Amino acid sequence: MHVRPPWAEPAPAGVLDIAIDPGQAFGTGAHDTTRLCLELLLGLEPGGELMDLGCGSGVLAIAAAKLGWDPVRGVDHELESVEATRENAAANGVEVEVSRFDLLRDGPAPTAPTVVANLLRPLLLAVARAGFRGDVPSRLIISGLLREQADEAAAAFGAHGLQEHARLAGGDWAAVLLCR
Ligand SMILES: C[S@@+](CC[C@H](N)C(=O)[O-])C[C@H]1O[C@@H](n2cnc3c(N)ncnc32)[C@H](O)[C@@H]1O
User: Fold this and answer.
1) CATH, residue 95
2) For range 60-86, the mean pLDDT
């Protein structure tokens, strides 16, 4: 998988190519937390619905759509992120349904059988406390965590029957795959 700005050379044939213009939103795809989420996504059997919580520029949602999840949805509390995800999805020729949602104020998190949540520790703990608006995901990828924060965040989702299946680390950061 090759994540690049729109003005850079596309990936060679056969390599999954994603062009991302973050605009005012978070996410060129280069941050360790995003890379770790992408690696965990690549290790899953794609299929069914996927929800990207805190979609930023849309890189994870777009990658998921290209890998075969369908439908793919994303939420973010920032208008800039919603717009960037919409524009980047269109530029990459995939469908991502994006809406504005504040994970701290709008109640339990929107859900899907596969959920990716690259959020910071306090927000992940808030999501674990508030729970999900519907069925608990079968597969949940969490990141935005410093290595030393990963145990606490993974354990917080134990209350929803989610257990750690894999963990990746890069630089100071970690990402965890939790499954039901
Ligand atoms: C670390 S960035 C991840 C962006 C993108 N998923 C990626 O991996 O590149 C976290 C995202 O969560 C969003 N966010 C922060 N607080 C939020 C909240 N209360 N509700 C919804 N989204 C929030 C931010 O706007 C940001 O886009």
Assistant:
1) 3.40.50.150
2) 97
